[in-house]
Amino acid sequence: MLAKLQAFYEKYGPDYVKEVLAGEHDPYGNHISALPVYYAIYGALLILTVLTVAVSYADLGPLSLPVAMLVAIIKASLVVGYFMHLKYDTPFNVLVFFGSLVFLAIFFVFVMVDLNSRGTLVAEQENFSIHRAQDPAEVKPAFVTPKNSDHGGGAHGDKKDGH
């Protein structure tokens, strides 16, 4: 390993090695961010986490959820952009990532519409339901077997009256 580092150092020179370590160049074409960038993003994530906790304790009424979601979106975009390197990735990968988020949002919209409309559907179904009697004596079964029926338990041909 040390031999590879020495060969790299001799091939590219000390200035290029300093640039790579500073995050300015990568001999393989990948983007390397400098450590101060990572520290800045880490600090921003810590501050946003404190803000998330503060929002949970603040009484913002109906604005609590939108503010918490906005902070969560900012934190997620920092993680995706810098720690997952999507900021420096190809446009196709960015398109695939945001396309999947759009389809996820569409899925959640359909689920929320379904959940919010269930009470309305139950109320409409009750309009078409059969009126239920309050007195159990008034309840009539849907199918009544006549009392003089041959179907009382015997086999065919076993008639009680001898026929």
Number of helices: 5
Q: Which segments are poorly predicted (pLDDT under 50) over 5 or more consecutive residues?
A: none
- Kindly report how far apart the N and C termini lie: 104 Å
Derived structural class: mainly alpha
Oligomer: single chain
What would you call the shape? Answer: elongated
Q: What kind of sheet is the major sheet?
A: none
Strand content: under 5%
* SSE succession: HHHHH
For the CA atoms, what is the radius of gyration? 36 Å
Commentary on this structure:
The structure is a single chain. With about 160 residues, the chain is mainly α. The chain has a domain at about 90-130. It is built from 5 helices and no strands. It has helices spanning about 1-10, 15-20, 35-55, 65-85, 90-125. Helix 1 (about 1-10) packs across helix 2 (about 15-20) and helix 3 packs antiparallel against helix 4 (about 65-85). The chain is elongated and about 105 Å long.
Short structural description:
By secondary structure, the protein is an all-alpha fold. It contains 5 helices and no strands. Helices cover 61% and strands 0% of the residues.
